[in-house]
Amino acid sequence: MTSLKKTSTPPSFDLNELKSISPPWIHKVDLFDVIESTNTYLKKISPKEPTLVVAHHQSAGRGTHERSFYCAPNQGLYVSFSVHDKLEYPISLVIGASILNALLDFGFRPHIKWVNDILIQDKKVGGVLCESFPNGIVVGFGINHSVSTFPNELKDLAGSLHEFSDDMIDPLALCASILNHFTIHMKHPRLVQHRINQHLLHHLKKVKITHLSKTYVGTLEGVNEYGHLVLNTHQGNIIFNTTVESIELDHD
Questions:
Q1: Residue 61 lies in domain
Q2: Which residue of 79, 124, 133, 171 has the fewest CB atoms within a 10 Å radius of its CB?
Q3: Residues 6+ apart with CB under 8 A from 80
Q4: pTM of this prediction?
């Protein structure tokens, strides 16, 4: 396990510190105390070169299917960056594997729920949202590192890293680890496939997948070399290359 900084309280960071941990391929860095959404901002400015945007708080965080993403001020890591080159593997899995590796660096035991949710002990601690724009793709993620209170409708579903650690996690160190892993993973799709399958929720278990209002039952085989989810059924393999409505264990 990589030794990374832990603190008793979640430290803040400034723009110069953020720039110091940004990988060389990032050309521009912005830091906001409050922003509507880092993804929305990047899509609006439509950068022509790799740009990193981080916020201490989002007033209108978004998840997949335009669902809202709960953001607590100064208690989460909210990050988006633009990628302008085509990758060999689905970019949502590349960033997903990078987050998994970073959390492993900190000693956590995370899982990924196809294709956007990061979980620890069945609680969602983070999410990924990748969106295209004219000049490339916006890669966004949010991670709850020290959220103390969730709304009633989320308290049994959502979690925060500090619940699973003796100390608060330094969000800048976490961001650095994720970006460093992404820099490696975007050139090595086999590493991404391996990491995703190692930590895929319900991997090799019997599940029910609901997609486009249809339900499929089979064994969750994992992610293939193209980044598609494979479900083994009595009728053969069914391939999913987009988000699905739900994946649940089948107890029948």
A1: 6-199
A2: 133
A3: 38, 39, 41, 42, 52, 53, 54, 138, 139, 140, 141
A4: 0.93
